[in-house]
Amino acid sequence: MNISQRLSQIDWKSLQHAYGDAEAAGDALAKILQIADDEAFAEGMDYIWSNLYHQGTIYDSTTEAVPFLLEALRIHPEARQELLLAFLLAVSRGSTYYVQHYDLMEEWGRDVTGEAYQQILATEKKYWTRCQTLLWEGWELYEQLLDSQNEGIQVAIPYLMAVLLSKEAELRPQQWRAQNLAQDVAERMWQTWEQPTPLSVEGECSRVFFLAHLLQDQPDIPQRLTAILVKTPHLAVRLSVALHLPLLQEYEKALPILLDALAQGEALENWFSSYFPWLWGDIRGVIVETLCLFPKEYLPHLAPSFLQIVQKASPYMADTEVVSILAYVFDGKKLTQPYHNNKLTDLERKLAQAIYDNENILSTDNVSRNATRAFEALLGISDKRQDWAALLGG
Fold first, then answer.
1. Which residues are bridge partners to 20 per DSSP?
2. Which of 24, 32, 206, 324 could form a disulfide with 44 if both were Cys (CB 3.0 to 4.6 A apart)?
3. What are 234-238's contacts with CB under 8 Å, separation 24+?
4. CB within 8 A of 225, min separation 6: which ones?
5. How many CB atoms lie within 10 A of CB 135?
6. DSSP per residue over 279-310, as a string?
7. In the chain, where are the structural domains located?
8. For 134-193, what is each residue's pLDDT tens digit?
9. d(Cα 129, Cα 70) in Å, to the nearest integer?
């Protein structure tokens, strides 16, 4: 049965995407599978990015599309393979609509405790599970593409392999369950630093990500990760390693690299973001979360960077970096009324002053409800300026 016949056998109209039924998905996939027509390929890719994957959500139509996208990956040249892999990587990390929007269901008036909701979740889990299993059908091709000189492929393949390996073994097709795939691939990736290999910085970061996913399973990975610090001069690659070193309690090795990265300022966002496509959020927030894993004895080293982050925080950082820092520094301490009676350490007072002085954080329309709830839950204080003024003795 040829591709056209396989596409026509699927009742796309009965499937859903981000904006309704997926009737046009078959035509879009047919365009993606055309080798000679660049315009048709681009139109097809625009369609799947706009409809079959939306803000981290995948649909039943996404699942049905995966085999055809893997077929396209086999027949197209590297420039198109890069684009296809970016989509497949996003799908591998996606979740279903009701899972993705669970926190909003109560606000939207949806009953998440009833049988109807549970049935929806069961249906979604069924096609999500099948989608992940179908992605495994491309494993042999992924292994072949590890040697690609295309930078986009160098980035996507290790990330995609790591994501697939990090999920339950039951999601794998039967032929892949008994094999030690991770060890074999890790050995190939390790050769990146054992011998001169033409690999982009982005590609190196991606391979670090893969190796770090094996920390619990491969006994030699910790030693190899720390060895990479000696072998590479590039801060982005070193940062990729340092983000995982606290899991090994290698705090002394990680600290200068993480602080050096934070010191890059705006360049951290403009430059490093391209090296970390696995992040949903910004790289600075991940660095802050990593620093907050350090034992409290490191707090004097972290305090200057933490204060600077809070002083310059935008409204969109209030429920991420700022909340993480407050949770780490206050460490479960609750503030009580009257607020001026609370005894604060020097650093706690400086952080409170920085929050009060930063007009982007307290009682602004742009600060998310999550930040407001976090202040209450963490510290027992609202986001109202008068409460923070009272805390500071004003």
1. 17
2. 32
3. 234/201, 234/204, 235/260, 235/261, 235/264, 236/201, 236/205, 236/271, 236/272, 236/275, 237/201, 237/204, 237/205, 237/208
4. 208, 211, 212, 215, 241, 244, 245, 248
5. 25
6. -SS-HHHHHHHHHTTS-GGGHHHHHHHHHHHH
7. 1-137, 174-291, 295-394
8. 999 999 999 999 989 898 999 899 999 999 988 888 888 887 776 778 888 888 888 888
9. 17
Cα gap 183→316, rounded to integer Å: 40
Q: Identify residue 225 by its one-letter amino acid code.
A: L
Contact (Cβ atoms closer than 8 angstroms) between residue 346 and residue 389: no
pTM for this structure? Answer: 0.83
Look at the block and give the residue holding tokens 């591709």.
Answer: 3
Closest to 47 measured CA to CA, from 69, 63, 32, 66: 32
Q: What one-character DSSP code corresponds to residue 53?
A: E
Q: Which amino acid is at 82?
A: E
pLDDT tens digits for range 243-289: 999 988 999 999 999 999 999 877 777 666 566 766 655 788 889 99
Q: Give residue 267's identity as a one-letter amino acid code.
A: A
User: In angstroms, rounded to a whole number, what is the distance separating the alpha carbons of residues 90 and 282?
Assistant: 17
Query: What does each C-alpha distance from 3 to 9, 67, 71, 85, 106 come to in angstroms?
Result: 10, 10, 9, 20, 43
Q: How far apart are CA 81 and CA 133, in angstroms?
A: 20
Name residue 58's beta-bridge partners: 53
Smallest CA-to-CA distance from 234 within 208, 265, 212, 269 is with 208
Cis peptide before 338 (omega within 30 of 0): yes
Query: Residue 35: helix, strand or coil by DSSP?
Result: coil
Rounded Cα distance, 322 and 341, in Å: 23
